[in-house]
Design a protein that fits this description.
This protein is α/β, with parallel strands linked by helices. The chain is 34% helix and 13% strand. The protein contains 7 helices and 5 strands, in the order E-H-H-E-H-E-H-E-H-E-H-H. Strands 3-2-1-4-5 form a 5-stranded parallel β-sheet. It is globular.
């Protein structure tokens, strides 16, 4: 079965500025200790993982500065984690996140036709040096975290999402 890597950033992806502000203003947490993710972002990540598991072996890879702290909050927020969750190596500078992903992939010794991937990150870093636009979902921390629509648009473009058909109406319903 072909592998499908999901390279996941956390800040700006699993929550956005409006969500952070509401959580802090509501007294639920301080911005530094935020462990609650936006429910729609968890729903979107679950949609991607669950759909891709139908045809691929999904590997979630944390490519965030959260690499050492993301698994528990993802699990506690309802992410459908199955199997190992990996992380990219840190090269010391987040501006090299694309290179960190390349370093991670090289350790798997896979040919290009043995895997597909998506990078979900609110920053651009050096991604375009190594990856194409259709491999990137780019939320915006100020305009909206990862959403179901972003995931569906990605899956449609890549041919992974079967178009949902409207239910057929009976002649009695048409009247």
């Amino acid at each position: 079965m072909k592998k499908f890597f999901i390279f996941l950033d956390i800040d700006g992806v699993m929550y956005d500025w409006d969500f952070i502000k509401a959580e802090v203003d509501g007294g639920n947490t301080s911005a530094r200790e935020l462990k609650q993710f936006k429910p729609e972002s968890i729903e979107a990540l679950n949609l991607l993982m669950d759909t891709m598991r139908e045809t691929h072996k999904v590997q979630l890879v944390i490519s965030s500065t959260w690499r050492d702290n993301a698994i528990r909050p993802l699990y506690q927020n309802g992410a459908h984690l199955k199997g190992a969750v990996y992380s990219t190596p840190s090269l010391g500078d987040p501006a090299h996140r694309g290179l960190e992903i390349i370093s991670f992939l090289e350790k798997w010794h896979l040919e290009d036709d043995e895997y597909d991937l998506v990078i979900i990150d609110d920053e651009s870093f050096d991604f375009k040096t190594y990856f194409t636009d259709d491999q990137i979902i780019k939320p915006n921390i100020f305009k909206g975290a990862l959403s179901v629509d972003m995931v569906k648009n990605y899956m449609r473009k890549k041919g992974y999402l079967k178009e949902e058909k409207a239910p057929e109406t009976t002649p009695a319903e048409k009247q």
